[in-house]
Amino acid sequence: MSSYSPIGPVVGIVGAGQLARMSQPPAIALGVELRVLANAPDESAARVIVDTRVGDYRDLADLREFAEGCDVITFDHEHVPTEHIKALTAAGHVVRPGADALVHAQDKAAMRERLTGIGVPCPAWARVSSPADVERFAAEHGWPVVLKAVRGGYDGRGVWVCRSPEEAAQAAAGPFGAGLEMLAEAFVSFERELAVLVARSPHGQGVSYPVVETVQQDGICVEVLAPAPGLDSEAAAQAQRIGLKIANELGVTGLLAVELFETASGLVVNELAMRPHNSGHWTIEGSTTSQFEQHLRAVLDLPLGTPKMTSQVVVMANLLGGDDPDLFKRYEHVLAHDPGIKLHFYGKEVRPGRKIGHVTALGSNLDEVRARARHAAVYLATGEYT
């Protein structure tokens, strides 16, 4: 625990993952003091942020103690119980985003109900509590059916694509048996996945970043292309309008990431996140105002920064852990091979398939920039390049 007196406003971040870690550089520049609530002292952000408190985000007493002295509380994940957020607000703490907004990123059924109600394009969906409910849904909307846990799923977890009644029964046996709330969604035949990142301040100022394409592999985002190549201007503008509309209607304060499917008949909203997001890591070098600085500005109700890109093309490639944990011995090759590449390591233990960092490349030619980012990410993870 820190013993010094803060000079600037104190932003408390519940969670000490890489999102909180990457918020530290812009906080330093803005004169903002960060405090993080970590599960353990060796978590990603706890390694670089002086004012680290260790506690359980599920424990209201730990949250109350953490909140004392903070000017505003925000999050680097969506897992804080909704009722705890309401209790902090009732006690006079400023929490952004608030519980009434954040619940739509925590609870997929609440999200679908609200988005459908405000006319945002969504897949057909329904709450289900048994395999029989899933079959009835499929009889109306067809197979495959996408089953989702209402709360708790991320990076492909808590999501099952079922192509038959047998697959649905098998997938649902565990969650339904455990009493887990589930919903069914019609499978969306999409051409690619997009994302739009918007920010909204408490007094209603809003900005939108360029729409990006996200490339997924086994439910994990492995690459982000900014701006989304080949996306016509009207579709891009529509995606930005959707993001800003959701932020305004839900009363979001801070960042909102809207994950979208591009289909032959238009855009469909897939998921929401109310925090800095993997689809926006490219903004650290690729935008005048990074998503991390923007989130801090928004939750402190400062004027928002411009989201203008600093380069024609930006590609971010996630760095996934391999069998050899010694990344640093491969830095020399990557940095010498491409002095323009930017590396971000999250200070996490290297495990196969785990997100442990990302690389960013900037330029004017998509194929060239994409190849540079891939080379760096593959070589850092494996020591080989194919």
Name the descriptors.
386 residues, four-stranded parallel beta sheet, 13 helices, 26% strand, nine-stranded antiparallel beta sheet, alpha+beta, globular
Brief description of this entry?
With 386 residues, the protein is α+β, with helices and mostly antiparallel strands.
What does the model show?
The chain is α+β, with helices and mostly antiparallel strands and 386 residues long. Helices cover 33% and strands 26% of the residues. The protein contains 13 helices and 17 strands. Strands 9, 10, 11, 12, 13, 14, 15, 16 and 17 form a nine-stranded antiparallel beta sheet that branches. α4 packs antiparallel against α5. The mean pLDDT is 94.
What gross morphology would you assign? globular
Count all strands and give the number.
Answer: 17
Mean pLDDT: 94
Per DSSP, the total helix count is 13
Query: Fraction of residues in helices?
Result: 25-40%
Structural class: alpha+beta
Low-pLDDT segments: none
Main pleated-sheet profile: 9 strands, antiparallel
Q: Hey, roughly how much beta strand do the residues contain?
A: 25-35%
Order of helices and strands: EHHEEHEHHHEHEEHEEEEEHEEHHEHEEH
**Radius of gyration, whole Å:** 21 Å
First CA to last CA: what distance?
46 Å
